[in-house]
Amino acid sequence: MSKMKLRVNGREHDIDVAPDTPLLYVLRDDLALNGAKFGCGLGQCGACTVMVGSEAAFSCLLPIGQIGDRQVTTVEGLGSAEHPGPVQRAFLEEQAAQCGYCIAGMIMRAQALLAANPAPDEATLRQHMAVNLCRCGTHMRILRAVRRAARDMKGGKPGGHA
Amino acid sequence: MNMARSTGALRWGSLLLLFVLACAALLVVSRRAAIDAAAAPAKSSFTPESVARGARLAAIGDCAGCHSGAVPLAGGVAMHTPFGIVYSTNITPDTATGIGAWTEAAFARAMRDGVARDGSHLYPAFPYDHFTRLTDADIHALYAWLMTRDAVSARAPANRLIFPLGFRPLLAGWKLLFLDRTPPAVNASQDVAYQRGAYLADALGHCGACHTPRNRLGAEERRHYLDGGEAEGWHATALNAASPSPQPWSEEQLAAYLRTGLAPNHAIAGGPMQVVVQNLAAAGDDDIHALAVYIHAMQSTAKPPAAASERRAQQPLASVAGSDAQWEAGRQVYAQACARCHDAGRETGSAGALQMPLAIANYLPDARNLIHIIRDGIHPPDNTPGRWMPAFGTTLTDAQLTALAAFLRHVAADAAPWPDLADAVKKTSAP
After folding, report:
1. Which of A11, A124, B333, B418 could form a disulfide with B404 if both were Cys (CB 3.0 to 4.6 A apart)?
2. The domain boundary residue, chosen from A77, A105, A130
3. Assigned domain for A159 exists
4. Are A67 and A97 members of one domain?
5. What are residue A101's phi and psi, to 5 degrees?
6. What is the CATH number of the domain that holds A27?
7. Which chain B residues touch A65 with a CB distance below 8 Å?
8. Alpha-carbon distance B147 to B40, whole Å?
């Protein structure tokens, strides 16, 4: 075990874990941030996707000891049920979730894309999102939600604190 | 002064005149006649045997590797060369945009001389420098197979080459210098399977297109046949006695690798080799065997430090403490992110991951392959089963990647540090 600091959604946490513990376990077990999900544990499905720095990353593959001073953003950091952020709201409006297990990861991957590229073309969008899987098969609705989020964010629709 | 200037001008003028004359001569010499368009031959005009034989040969020739993008054999795939982008062409039997109007003579001339039906020279991204040594029977079988595929209308985008290479008659000069019809030297005392393998590897499989180094004009250096080359930003390893493999290859392992992309506890196909292996799935067993026999024979004089690498593979690397900060940083990345699958004594759920002292990527002349694999993982091509390694590109920073690669080079391969490692890490980062 070793003591370290971890900055998530703008808050600093003191944690005491083995350095090879995956970030996902720390988020869920120590910080009770249960948005990111355990899917495969192998970086194959994307259910655990969070943002590390400005990039979408598989939190199941990232050992806590290698985070350094990079900041972590989870779906909880984009808004709340009362005040959803623009990407979250677009997912609600398009009813992109079926069972919902993949959705937090989908939202975080989309958030990383739109933060870097506010108007992605269709090929870029699909290539970027291809890494995350939805076993219910709502990929088409998810893509619609990301397109809507891009439009909303461009139009300056208010919401959330992202 | 004045005199000198006018002499200089005169000299430049005569040089220019010479250049223009040389170009004109090249134009005249390089002109090849068009072969008249013909109606696409009826599919029934080919025997099922030659079509099936052509299919097995095309698998080894890897036609689909370059000519299949979204649509099989319809071309349009961008090939990035040091001279610009060449787009592969449509080789389906469509008469307007493919090779439907090509007679067998026109097809054979393209394969042997690198000349299109209309008489224009083809770029050597199309490996006619190998196909030129194909037998008539094999060219016929390939023609039969191609002409019995579904015709697709698709026109490739225009090439984007550096000036003046868009001017195709220049290729006549390239061919004069580099289109060599003599096969590479082989060991004549070897058996039939070896001779067959040597022919397939050279004339059809064009292994040398990636595995032989090229000169500044993009031609393979025949003196360094299969000594190791380049493929799409990856190092293509030496296939001959210069092989850097930490373990010797058996014939069976080579055949398994060519057939499935996997030789357990030895190697897994990655990067541009994946599509080669994917296509080889349709090759004949006897031909895969022949290729394995040939490559195995070439490597029989290689001296891999097998005992040392096997000894290193038996000890957990995660605890090999180092002397400096960079080593310790790399060890920590390995211990925390890699060891749970790769370290001695650990096992993943479905299959053992390769132990790093046995992984050829750590022994290559440069770090690119190792970095590509860590960044992008190993994913079987779409819709095919296969082993998987996750991509660490967005979980590890460039500094962590650099430290990890340096650690593996030192501890797993026990080899001298790669020069310019940090630079290689930067160059392979996502655009």
Report:
1. B333
2. A77
3. no
4. no
5. -65, -35
6. 3.10.20.30
7. 332, 336
8. 8
Task: Locate B305 and state its tokens.
Answer: 């430090």
In a domain, residue A31? The reply is: yes
Q: Residues B301-321, buried b or exposed e (16+ Cβ, 10 A)?
A: ebebbeeebeebbeeebbebe
Give B 97-156 residues with CB within 8 A of chain A. Answer: none
Is the CB of B332 less than 8 angstroms away from the CB of A66?
yes
Nearest residue on chain B to A18, judged by CA atoms? B336
Contact B394 A42 (CB under 8 A): no
Give me the domain span that covers residue A100.
86-154
Q: Are residues A72 and A121 in the same domain?
A: no
Chain B, 284 to 343: residues with Cβ < 8 Å from chain A are 332-333, 335-337, 339-340
CB contact under 8 A, B388 and A44: yes
**pLDDT by residue (tens digit) across B56-98?**
999 999 999 999 998 999 999 999 999 999 999 999 999 999 9
Same domain, A8 and A71: yes
- What are the counts of helices (DSSP H) followed by strands (DSSP E) for chain A? 5, 5
pLDDT tens digit string along B303-338?
Answer: 766 788 888 888 999 988 888 898 999 999 999 999
Convert the pLDDT of each residue in B334-377 to its tens digit. Answer: 999 999 889 988 765 555 789 999 999 999 999 999 999 999 99
Nearest residue of chain A to residue B377 (CA atoms): A43
Domain shared by A21 and A64, yes or no = yes
Mutate to test the interface with B, among A4, A17, A20 (most CBs of B within 10 A): A20
The interface pTM score, or ipTM, of the predicted complex is 0.88
Report the residue from A19, A20, A57 with minimal CB separation from B395.
A57
Cα→Cα distances B31→B26, B164, B269, B354, B391, Å: 8, 18, 42, 54, 50
- In whole angstroms, give the CA distance from residue A123 to residue B360: 35
Distance from CA of A128 to the nearest CA of B (A): 12
On the question of a common fold for B192-301 and B306-427, the answer reads yes
Q: Is B392 on the interface with A (CB under 8 A)?
A: yes
- Token couple for B16: 């220019």
Among A34, A58, A77, identify where a domain stops. Answer: A77
Q: How many domains does chain A fold into?
A: 2
The DSSP line for A92-116 is: HHTT--SS-TTHHHHHHHHHHHHHH
Within 10 A of A108 (CB to CB), how many other CB atoms are there?
Answer: 27
| Within-domain flag for A46 | yes
Instruction: Give the closest residue to A104 by CA, choosing from A69, A73, A140, A137.
Output: A73
Q: Which residue is closest to A72 within chain B, CA to CA?
A: B395
Q: B192-301 in CATH: which number?
A: 1.10.760
A118 touches chain B (CB under 8 A): no
For chain B, what are the domain ranges?
A: 43-178, 192-301, 306-427
Decide if A161 is inside a domain: no
> How is domain B306-427 classified at the architecture level of CATH?
Orthogonal Bundle (1.10)
